[in-house]
Amino acid sequence: MLGSINSLMISEVCAEGAYLDGKELGEVFLPAQELEEHLEAGDSVQVFIFQDAQGHPTATTKTPIAQVGQFALLRVKALSTVGAFMDIGIDKDVLAPFNEQKPKMREGHSYLVRLYLDNASKRLCASSNLNKFLNKTEPNYSKFEKVDLIVAAKTDLGYKVIINEQHFGVVFFNTVFKRMFMGQKLKGYIKSVREDGKIDVVLEKPGMGKVVDLGAQILQALNDNGGYLPLGDKSDPEQIKKTFATSKANYKKAIGGLFKQGKINIEAKSISLKK
Question: Where is the Conserved virulence factor B first S1 domain (predicted)?
Answer without folding.
Answer: 2-62
